[in-house]
Automatic annotation (TrEMBL):
Coverage span on the entire protein: 306 to 589 of 589
Protein name: Diguanylate cyclase/phosphodiesterase
Domain EAL as annotated: residue spans: 24-276
Organism this protein belongs to: Magnetococcus marinus (strain ATCC BAA-1437 / JCM 17883 / MC-1)
Amino acid sequence: QAKEDGRNCLRFYTAELDQVARTRIEIESHLRQARVQGELSLVYQPLVDLQRRQIIGAETLLRWTSARLGEMSPEHFIPIAEDSGAIQEIGTMVLQSAFVQGALWARQMGAFRLSVNVSVRQFKSPDFVPLIAGLMAEAPPELVLDLELTEHLLMEDDHKVAETLLQLKKLGVHLSIDDFGTGYSSLSYLKQFPIDILKIDRAFVRDVDQDENSASLTRAILSMAKSLNLDIVAEGIERPQHLDFLLKHACPWGQGYLFSEPVQPARFDRLLLEGLPRDKDFTY
Ligand code: C2E
Ligand code: MG
Ligand code: MG
Ligand code: MG
């Protein structure tokens, strides 16, 4: 009887593995279809001047609502798109449509920061700099483009990466490090590369009011950014306590559910018109 259980167990296990593998292949092929069927869309999360509680820009985030697989998280499908190479085409689409939207908001607002996440493979493609150059040439001067890179990319010992960063700087693009503090712990690239902005990962922000270590690390990152003359964005501001802490320590910019989750363009238009809701503070 025990033997039978064991076999069942094994069978169950391989079936599960099979499921994982199949899902990956399925996701890959559905993602190919998604582009044709228009299942991909963009949402925008307000970037907020914390002191003035005003929207100064937006982070562009990709959404995939699959007819077959349901709502798929970018955390899940971006790595798959990266492996299969689909990220090239998807990333180009993201940049092109974000630029059209960002240009509208920039003209309307007089100044607007548009940030777009860039994956490693996309960044390394020979088409990347020409694409950005073309988009920047068309963009209104009020639009500031901010490309979000990962620590992972900057840690690669690759002279091509450094070269591309310089080319992007020449085009007037701002460069930020996303999820700062969660990747490799070497800070040498901050001195090596022309970085403009650090985005403090929400893992730090989440516990600033409860955990002394998170608070110390956040203070340290803020003061380091200040002395290196870098701009800084705190991610994942969810509660008034987070905002209080960040204001107390002079963090200039932030994003998070306290202000707004990522929203569709029409809703973002309304936020620009009406301002951020003040009474959202106590929904958590
Ligand atoms: P990220 O760039 O660090 O984006 C921030 C993520 O945190 C987003 O998740 C956003 O919805 C979420 N978020 C914002 N405020 C809060 C908050 O207050 N609390 C919590 N718990 N979460 C918050 P999302 O949209 O699911 O994206 C996940 C990741 O997928 C992104 O992390 C980014 O690395 C990647 N991604 C999304 N869109 C793109 C894209 O167009 N291209 C590339 N290469 N990657 C993308
Ligand atoms: Mg990001
Ligand atoms: Mg991030
Ligand atoms: Mg992230």
